[in-house]
């Protein structure tokens, strides 16, 4: 059994002794914590019998005005419940923190899936903590406002040298919390936050030598947007559309589509675009007004880039991990399912990505990841592409976005990996389980129907049991649910449907929707 030793944490007997958020003292304390994480990653992570504590912080520390437009956003904190599968390691403890309590039956559902461990054994090593605060503030902020809760977390951590904090995304709030709890973060230092922005991503793509849509970054005003739209139209007179993106938008909700107006001969292009910007620009998120969009764009900055046309287009992504030793691992590829009028909203994913291009796609992702290594990135992240099929049957992959956080493709893949002990082979595009079988899945975060409102978690579980929708660990096929807490109020939940073929995975999905509709409509 491996153990890691490190210097003891400073003990704060009074919250006023914490370093001031954002101060040099806090930055120094954070760096010291992160230095010890490399040893933990090398020694503790690979050892399934090593004692450890994982503090799971599923805070969506994103722009709250935009986040509030997502139906049932507070329940997205449940997406990281996939990490309860870490309890299959018998000496691992988990502390999971949420804004509001999660129903016991949801926790029991996840623990039931654990291979090789009884739910009773796992339950003894799991601590669920809640802020009892359903406000729209980020969960991390809620925790920071509760110093007694922070102290409870500290007291539950026996050995800081074998403990770490894992988050949905990392900002200065998570950095402050890591220092106050006294354990490192597995993720990119928020001082590098720009590298994960839309503008920073475009610069990384150029440095990595990969294709990207033509466009302009580091824009901050309406005038900047107009200027970029004019330049693109002059370069490509036949261009019909362009995309305007906030630097820190997510799931497509920070994007807007611009449709070029007809310009009469003799008209000034810049004047025409400036005068028609309000009419021609349409925010992707339905509840985001024009005024709010421009307000957020000015606060965050953003980009304008060409809208890629093509008769056959796909929206794949590559998931990577950068280890503390600066090694790049390509852990998965997906084809993303996008919705909305212009295909800008993330709905779900198919795993693995289309086999005709998944291998070269992974190679492009690795180039970008290696550039991010040089820029100091760490941990799990995803790179989004638009892939356009050419007349000769080949594909061109255009990098469009870096997400230095856990995204919509993270939790389905982690569930599959935890349950099957498999590995994705980027050189072949196949996922192979420990027993040597291929597996595929069809996943969605956005199964939504008003008819499902009123179903409580116990109802869903009863329906699953009656109709045989529970994941079968022996066959390593079936359906797993998430976002279950959003079902009763919002009629919304998520599915991961695992099969021995892409067709079987989609069959599980279609069957589940049919049964839910049968039971509720």
Please state the overall shape, judged from the principal axes of the Cα atoms: globular
Strand content: 15-25%
Which percent range fits the helix content?
25-40%
Poorly predicted runs: 5-9
Cα end-to-end separation: 54 Å
Radius of gyration: 23 Å
Structure write-up:
The structure is a single chain. The protein has 521 residues and is of the alpha+beta class. The chain has 4 domains: 15-186, no CATH class; 189-212 and 310-424, ATP-grasp fold, B domain (D-amino Acid Aminotransferase, Chain A, domain 1, 2-Layer Sandwich), CATH 3.30.470.20; 214-306, no CATH class; 439-521, 2-Layer Sandwich (TATA-Binding Protein). The chain has helices at residues 24-43, 64-67, 104-112, 119-123, 139-144, 147-156, 172-181, 198-208, 222-235, 269-280, 290-300, 358-374, 410-420, 457-467, 487-490, 502-520; strands at residues 52-57, 92-98, 126-130, 163-167, 215-219, 241-246, 255-259, 281-283, 302-306, 313-314, 316-322, 328-339, 345-351, 379-389, 395-403, 423-425, 430-432, 440-448, 478-482, 492-499. The strands form 4 sheets. Strands 10, 11, 12, 13, 14, 15, 18, 19 and 20 form a 9-stranded antiparallel beta sheet that branches. Helix 9 (222-235) crosses helix 10. The longest helix has 20 residues, at 24-43.
């Amino acid at each position: 059994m491996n153990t890691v030793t490190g210097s003891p944490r400073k003990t704060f007997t009074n919250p006023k002794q914490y370093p001031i958020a954002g101060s040099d003292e806090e930055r120094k304390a954070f760096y010291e914590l992160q230095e010890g994480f490399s040893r933990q990653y090398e020694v503790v992570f690979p050892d399934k019998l090593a004692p450890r504590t994982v503090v799971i912080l599923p805070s969506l520390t994103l722009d709250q005005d935009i986040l509030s437009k997502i139906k049932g956003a507070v329940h997205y904190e449940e997406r990281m419940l996939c990490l309860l599968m870490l309890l299959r390691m018998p000496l691992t403890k988990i502390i999971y923190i949420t804004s509001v309590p999660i129903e016991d039956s949801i926790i029991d559902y996840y623990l039931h899936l654990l291979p090789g461990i009884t739910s009773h054994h796992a339950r003894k090593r799991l601590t669920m903590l809640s802020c009892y605060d359903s406000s729209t503030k980020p969960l991390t902020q809620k925790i920071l406002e509760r110093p007694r809760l922070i102290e409870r977390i500290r007291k539950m951590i026996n050995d800081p040298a074998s403990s770490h904090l894992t988050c949905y995304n990392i900002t200065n709030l998570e950095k402050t919390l890591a220092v106050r709890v006294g354990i490192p973060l597995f993720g990119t230092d928020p001082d590098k936050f720009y590298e994960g922005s839309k503008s920073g991503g475009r610069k990384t793509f150029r440095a990595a030598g990969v294709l990207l849509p033509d466009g302009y970054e580091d824009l901050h005003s309406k005038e900047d947007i107009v200027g970029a739209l004019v330049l693109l139209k002059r370069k490509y007179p036949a261009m019909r559309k362009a995309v305007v993106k906030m630097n820190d938008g997510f799931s497509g909700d920070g994007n807007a589509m611009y449709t070029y107006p007809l310009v009469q001969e003799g008209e000034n292009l810049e004047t025409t675009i400036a005068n028609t910007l309000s009419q021609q620009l349409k925010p992707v998120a339905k509840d985001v007004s024009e005024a709010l969009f421009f307000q957020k764009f000015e606060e965050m900055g953003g980009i304008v880039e060409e809208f890629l046309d093509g008769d056959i287009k796909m929206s794949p992504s590559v998931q990577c991990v950068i280890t503390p030793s600066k090694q790049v691992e390509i852990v998965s590829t997906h084809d993303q399912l996008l919705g909305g009028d212009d295909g800008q909203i993330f709905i779900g994913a198919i795993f693995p990505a289309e086999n005709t291009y998944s291998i070269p796609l992974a190679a492009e992702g690795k180039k970008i990841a290696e550039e991010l290594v040089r820029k100091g990135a760490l941990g799990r992240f995803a790179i989004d592409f638009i892939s356009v099929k050419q007349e000769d049957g080949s594909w061109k992959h255009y990098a469009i976005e870096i997400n230095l956080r856990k995204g919509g493709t993270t939790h389905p893949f982690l569930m599959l990996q935890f349950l099957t002990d498999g590995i994705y082979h980027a050189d072949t595009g196949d996922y192979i389980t420990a027993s040597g079988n291929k597996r595929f899945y069809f996943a969605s975060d956005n199964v939504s129907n008003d008819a499902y409102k009123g179903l409580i978690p116990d109802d869903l579980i009863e329906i699953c049991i009656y109709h045989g929708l529970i994941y079968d660990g022996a066959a390593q096929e079936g359906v797993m649910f998430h976002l279950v807490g959003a079902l009763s109020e919002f009629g919304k939940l998520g599915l991961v449907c695992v099969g021995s073929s892409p067709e079987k995975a989609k069959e599980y999905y279609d069957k589940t929707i049919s049964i839910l509709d049968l039971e509720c409509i």
